[in-house]
Design goal:
7-stranded parallel β-sheet; Rossmann fold; 2 domains; alpha/beta; Glycosyltransferase; 372 residues; 6-stranded parallel β-sheet
């Protein structure tokens, strides 16, 4: 009697510089791929978040990726990506700047024709005129068409790609509503308070790097305290500036560092204000979480904070001046927050919207791929 082999499970490859990005930025996307019958290979540098990626049907592939442009590092990473691209993939998702550039340059044509680049924020802002920003803008314009699909999470980034000459357009250009935030989780009442201090605190959540600028948050709270506001600051994140924050805690008993936690909803629910001083963002998840929780936001002006806080839902500053930041913090603490409008804004980036948009993206890719 004839036997029929089971159909081959489809294979998806997802690549970022570090495992943390894959674990935190797109978990809902990975779940959608599993539901659609894909086995997922996660490719990234190993870190403390790697283990969380491993679920039944998933594979982890370690790559030597660093956030560095040293020639040796770039060449080794390019060679590793080229080798990875020679495998048989049904869908590839890339989502960090260095990876995205190298993959579009060195990956095989077959793999590129199955690739979506999910842009969590181009490394330039609208109107930014510095030499580095101009170079990155030209590079992104030249490479935009070298994948099957390009998905943006920021309206400003979407406009940039749409403005390119038609010859440079990707075959599919899709707008995603962030990375899918479980709004109801952040809006839940009676979440237990994390930490032992009962004091009022400001919150910073994000990678501890120069772009996120956590020391701006430290300076802002320090100025608030100088004015007599008994506000503490909890910094949640990892990165190369962690030692600077740790050093600052030794002389600032009101400053607390939490390197890794799954309890962000609890921290957010009890915070008096979220400080978001990033220079560049796509659509920052942490601000969506604050809006869902009804926590006031003070943010630096960038495409993401402008998009999310439009209409007066938070304070947006073009400066890192501690006095200006302290003024903004005092203003949001003294003014009642419009929690209904904040929740409505957050819901536009919630799980249901994301699942629908991401599922539609995968469907379009599968349809286009069948014609290639």
């Amino acid at each position: 009697m004839a036997t029929h082999a089971a159909p081959r499970r489809r294979r998806a490859l997802t690549i970022a510089t570090v495992s943390r990005s894959l674990a935190l930025q797109s978990p809902e996307g990975w779940q959608i791929l599993r539901e659609r019958g894909y086995n997922i290979t996660f490719a990234a540098a190993r870190d403390a978040w790697t283990a969380s990626l491993l679920t039944p049907g998933s594979v982890y592939h370690e790559i030597r990726a660093e956030r560095s442009l040293r020639p040796r590092v770039v060449l080794e990473l390019a060679a590793g990506l080229r080798a990875l691209s020679r495998q048989e993939w049904d869908l590839v998702q890339i989502q960090s700047p260095i990876i995205s550039v190298l993959w579009r340059l060195v990956a095989t044509g077959r793999s590129r024709r199955r690739t979506v680049y999910v842009v969590h924020g181009f490394h330039f802002q609208s109107g930014e005129r510095g030499l580095r920003a101009q170079a990155v803008r030209l590079l992104e314009a030249a490479l935009a068409h070298r994948t099957l699909a390009l998905a943006t999470v920021s309206a400003a980034d979407h406009r940039f790609v749409r403005s390119l000459p038609r010859l440079l357009h990707p075959k599919l250009l899709v707008a995603l509503p962030g990375a899918g935030v479980p709004v109801d989780t952040y809006a839940a009442l009676n979440l237990p308070r994390e930490g032992s201090s009962p004091s009022a605190y400001a919150l910073f959540v994000g990678d501890l790097n120069a772009n996120k600028d956590p020391m701006c948050a430290v300076a802002a709270v320090e100025e608030c305290r100088r004015r007599g506001r008994p506000l503490e600051l909890t910094v949640i994140g990892e990165g190369h500036l962690a030692d600077d924050i740790r050093t600052a805690t030794r002389t600032r008993p009101w400053l607390h560092l939490v390197d890794r936690t799954r309890a962000i909803p609890s921290w957010m629910a009890h915070a008096q204000v979220l400080l978001a001083p990033s220079y560049r963002e796509g659509v920052p998840r942490v601000i969506i979480e604050a809006l869902a929780a009804g926590t006031p936001v003070v943010a630096r002006r960038n495409r993401g904070s402008v998009e999310l806080l439009a209409g007066g839902l938070g304070e947006i500053l073009p400066t890192d001046d501690p006095q200006a930041w302290a003024d903004a913090v005092e203003h949001v603490l003294d003014a009642p927050a419009d929690t209904v409008a904040m929740r409505e804004r957050a819901e536009a980036y919630g799980l249901d919207r994301f699942r629908s948009a991401y599922s539609d993206l995968v469907t379009q890719m599968e349809s286009k791929r069948s014609l290639l």
